Amino acid sequence: MQVSVRILDTIPVTHNVRHYRLERPKGYGFSPGQATEVSIDRDGWRDQKRPFTFTCLPDADMLEFTIKSYFDHSGVTNELWSLGSGDHLILRDVWGTIQYKGQGTFIAGGAGVTPFIAILRHLNATGRIAGNRLIVSNRTEKDIILLEEFEAMEGLEVIWTVTDDPRSKLLQERIDAAFMRKHLPDLDGNFYLCGPDAMVADLRGQLEEAGADVGKVTWEK
């Protein structure tokens, strides 16, 4: 399945992240946490596919992706920054491995928070957000995605930490075994991980060593 859809609007989120809101094809559905391969519908770009997670609610009238652009090389995300209303993207079949399995802790590194956006928005909209925790690490405060929205979700515990922003009043700690011993009161719930491959691999190992049930650890494969 492949379909070209029109961009309705782009909305700034941070200095290098935007919401891309698109028309929604009839019958095109997804579950919170799922993604699809996206291409830019322009000559020279149609065969360059990148996976992006849907960040809107599953019953929204339009589709939304929240995408970080990397300006240090001429790739898809850099080209996306040049697009606006009326341009087109190519969408394909829906897939994804991060599905909500019950209350737990969502741990993200940087733009790795994007697969959690639709899940947490859906839990919030359906009155099931309480009892969940979100922990996100960024280099600086200006890199944080949707800080105000997440903090407004009543019942969601949120912990922000930065690793390269000495002027910030947020935590200045890396998410590692010492961090988890300090900030996670128990390891009984589910864990959802997304971020750089090395970070996710380290966290999986640390959770297992700390006694978490590996069957309750979900990550983007």
Write the layout of secondary structure elements.
Elements: E1 2-12, E2 17-23, E3 35-40, E4 50-53, E5 62-68, H1 76-80, E6 88-95, E7 104-109, H2 114-125, E8 133-138, H3 147-151, E9 157-162, H4 177-183, E10 190-194, H5 197-210, E11 217-219
Parallel strand pairs: 7-8, 7-10, 8-9, 10-11
Antiparallel strand pairs: 1-2, 1-6, 2-5, 3-4, 3-6
The whole-angstrom Rg is 18 Å
| SSE-based structural type | alpha/beta
The tally of strands reads: 11
Low-pLDDT runs: none
The strands making up the biggest β-sheet line up spatially as 4-3-6-1-2-5
Largest sheet: 6 strands, antiparallel
Question: What are the secondary-structure elements, in order, as H or E?
Answer: EEEEEHEEHEHEHEHE
> What characteristic shape results from the CA principal axes?
globular
Helix content: 10-25%
Strand content: 25-35%
Tell me what the CATH architecture of the largest domain is: 3-Layer(aba) Sandwich
CATH classification, class level of the largest domain? Alpha Beta
Using the coordinates shown, work out and report the CATH topology of the largest domain: Rossmann fold
Number of domains: 2
CATH-assigned homologous superfamily of the largest domain: Nucleotide-binding domain of ferredoxin-NADP reductase (FNR) module
Mean pLDDT: 95
Count of helical regions: 5
Alpha carbon gap, first and last residue: 22 Å
Task: Provide an overview of this structure.
- This protein is 19% helix and 31% strand.
- The chain has helices spanning 76-80, 114-125, 147-151, 177-183, 197-210; strands at residues 2-12, 17-23, 35-40, 50-53, 62-68, 88-95, 104-109, 133-138, 157-162, 190-194, 217-219.
- It has 2 domains: 2-95, Beta Barrel (Elongation Factor Tu (Ef-tu), domain 3), CATH 2.40.30.10; 104-219, Nucleotide-binding domain of ferredoxin-NADP reductase (FNR) module (Rossmann fold).
- The chain is globular.
- The strands form 2 sheets. A 6-stranded antiparallel β-sheet has the order 4-3-6-1-2-5.
- The chain has 221 residues and is an alpha/beta fold.
- 31% of the residues are buried.
